[in-house]
Amino acid sequence: MPLSATSFTPVTATPEAPPGHLVIIGGGEDRSKDMRVLRRFVELTHAANPKIVVLTAASREQERVAEVYRHAFGLLGAQPIVFAMHKRTDAADPQVLDHLLQADGVFMTGGDQRKLLSIIGGTRTSAAMHRIYRERGACIAGTSAGASAMSEHMLAEGWVNPHPAKGAVDLAAGLGFLPRAIVDQHFSERQRLGRLLTVVAQNPYLLGVGIDEDTALVIERGLGLEVVGQGAVTLVDGREMQSDFLELYDRDLIELHNARLHLLPDGARHGMQEGAAPDSSPMPQPLREAVAILCSGEYPG
Amino acid sequence: MPLSATSFTPVTATPEAPPGHLVIIGGGEDRSKDMRVLRRFVELTHAANPKIVVLTAASREQERVAEVYRHAFGLLGAQPIVFAMHKRTDAADPQVLDHLLQADGVFMTGGDQRKLLSIIGGTRTSAAMHRIYRERGACIAGTSAGASAMSEHMLAEGWVNPHPAKGAVDLAAGLGFLPRAIVDQHFSERQRLGRLLTVVAQNPYLLGVGIDEDTALVIERGLGLEVVGQGAVTLVDGREMQSDFLELYDRDLIELHNARLHLLPDGARHGMQEGAAPDSSPMPQPLREAVAILCSGEYPG
After folding, report:
1. DSSP labels for A20-65?
2. Which of A212, A291, B129, B145 has an alpha carbon 20 to 30 Å from A66's alpha carbon atom?
3. How far is CA B33 from CA A25, A152, B37, B39, in A?
4. Share of chain A residues as helix, strand and coil, in percent rounded to the nearest 5
5. Complex ipTM above 0.90?
6. Torsion angle, CA of A236/A238/A239/A240, rounded to 10 degrees?
7. Rounded to an integer, what distance in angstroms lies between the CA atom of residue A221 and that of residue B246?
8. Would you give the distance in Å from CA B284 to the centre of its chain?
């Protein structure tokens, strides 16, 4: 895509600690044909025959889902190891932790993000994922519920309304890989702009991230981001937004002014540092700040 | 709605020339129950037993549509006079022009905006509508195709894609009541944000206006605007937007940065002049400019 470039200059990575990646997938990724999104995840483990731990805890049909990803990752030349988890003690199993600490990548399947968090939130499994992401540059991926779970403040549930409406969304605690963003998935397919705007109207310090099906937002820690897949990633920045949220009753439509929208389709690629990626046109400052929020996990300035 | 107020101070109107109104309806307005949108149109003619000319030219079933609005406007205490038009000479009929020049309101029905413009665009009917709007403060309304027809640059046709895509929209010449805006209707019901963003990416000097069903954007000429109905009005301001539109192939998804979005639900009401409406909170400057674009028909500054 002309607005972006082909590589970032790794300004913070060292040979000892390459930057970790997050691959945040909007659900419905192809698992049997070209597998562009899953293939990019496997590439970003930067290992030949990478060891990938698959966590199916979000799903109600863990064995069926496990089979799908065993097959897909096998086709892509990886070694998938699937762990089903049904209760929190499963997430403290020493065998699971041994595998996680040696993994090149971790993949969280879809299902229900509340189920996923109720099983792995705050456990040694979650801690091991953070450790290999930060210390060993592992690649952490999640699709659908697994994508929502990535953020610190997690979109747990919401009713669909084409417009933002007070009380339309419930938040919960997530895994914390994205401290200042909130992720919604199946985004344009399920018309979720209204509920993402609801979250941002109520929480203007969170950057809204809507990810379409068969599409991934890829974050290279401290460096930049890219978009891969059939759809697009929608960013909603509400830091300058005004709304009448506080003065409404439940389910009233919210009036809001001055939301900023960025739309990043397949191939979009932006570095966090000025000049890190040789853009053909300079990014507007609000987009640069949004990239910084996503990639550093902190607000700029 | 708390962000807005209940009345504008008429700063330019004189007793001789009260300000005209535009009532731009997103289609599907209630025509038999509470009729909030049609009732507001009738009120804004500021006449007891107002004379309303109904133009059905957009429709392929003009007699059926005529009957619906004869009934509805009769219930609302107005005198509807319906003119079917099939060819351009019908739009120069002296009898039609006589009625138009005496009308308190004009209502354009739904159908196909290209058919409507092919029959009345540039005719004495169109000129008479402009004249009574500007000189006598008449109220000009349109629903669905009749709403799209209001702008100078008219959204004629477009395929639906959840995201903006190059070549997704065709423009045509409209009636010119809104020189610097472009109207889309059935907006959230038919998921048309993508096509409106396409128009704005290609024409960043046009303000995108998306109107939901059973919802009207009401413009008081030179003064302010309000929203009435079940849904909301979405404004897309692309004046600071960057996109890669010029570098793409047809049907490619467009990458865009820095679109501004305002969402105005039922009850939103904003004056064009600072202080004209006693807002409980000041409008951000971009919204004030958008209101000015819509109500003055000119860019500010």
Report:
1. PEEEEE-S---SSSS-HHHHHHHHHTT-SS-EEEEE-TT-S-HHHH
2. A212
3. 45, 47, 11, 11
4. 30, 25, 45
5. no
6. 120
7. 31
8. 23
Q: Do residues A182 and A195 make contact, with C-beta atoms less than 8 angstroms apart?
A: no
Average pLDDT, integer, range A155-182:
91
d(CA A247, CA A14): 50
Nearest Cα to Cα of residue B210 among B73, B25, B50, B23: B25
Backbone angles phi, psi at A229, to 5 degrees: 135, -170
Cβ within 8 Å of B, A 226-255: 231-232, 240, 242, 244, 247-248, 252-255
Question: Would you state the pLDDT for residue B296?
Answer: 87
Contacts of A284 in chain B (CB under 8 A): 240, 242, 257-258
Contact assignment for B188 to A259 by CB distance below 8 Å: no
Beta bridge partners of B22: B140, B219
**With a CB-CB cutoff of 8 Å, which residues 154-193 of chain B face chain A?**
162-164, 188-189, 191, 193
Active site residue B213: yes
pLDDT digits (tens, 9 = 90+) for B16-70: 668 999 999 999 999 999 999 999 999 999 999 999 999 999 999 999 999 999 9
Tell me the three state secondary structure of residue A17: coil
Residues of B in contact with A286 (CB under 8 A): 257-258
Residues A176, A155 contacting (CB under 8 angstroms):
no
Q: What is the pLDDT of residue B292?
A: 92
Q: How far is CA B83 from CA B69, B92, B121, in A?
A: 12, 12, 16
CB atoms under 10 Å from CB of B30, counted, come to 16
* HEC assignment per residue over chain B: CCCCCCCCCCCCCCCCCCCCEEEEECCCCCCCCCCHHHHHHHHHCCCCCCEEEEECCCCCCHHHHHHHHHHHHHHCCCEEEEECCCCHHHHHCHHHHHHHHHCCEEEECCCCHHHHHHHHCCCHHHHHHHHHHHHCCCEEEEECHHHHCCECEEEEEECCCCCCECCCEEEEECCCCECCEEEECCCCCCCCHHHHHHHHHHCCCCEEEEECCCEEEEEECCCEEEEEECCEEEEEECCCCEECHHHCCCCCECCEEEEEEEEEECCCEEECCCCCCCCCCCCCHHHHHHHHHHHHCCCCC
Closest by CA to B119, choosing from B143, B93, B86, B141, is: B86
Lowest mean pLDDT among A30-34, A53-57, A161-165, B64-68: A161-165
- Strand-pairing partners, residue A265, are A232
Q: Which two tokens stand for residue A195?
A: 């509920």
Catalytic residue among B148, B151, B153, B186: B186
Tokens of A215: 């599409």
Report the run of H or E that residue A139 belongs to, with start and end.
strand A139-143
Tell me the two tokens of residue A235: 């960013």
By the 8 A CB rule, do A83 and A99 touch? yes
Does pLDDT of A299 surpass 50?
no
Using an 8 Å CB-CB cutoff, list chain B residues near A281.
Answer: 242
Q: Give SS3 for A262.
A: strand
| Beta carbons of A256 and B268 less than 8 Å apart | no
User: If you search the block for the tokens 């697994």, which residue do you land on?
Assistant: A146
**Is the pLDDT assigned to residue A274 strictly greater than 80?**
no
B263 touches chain A (CB under 8 A): yes
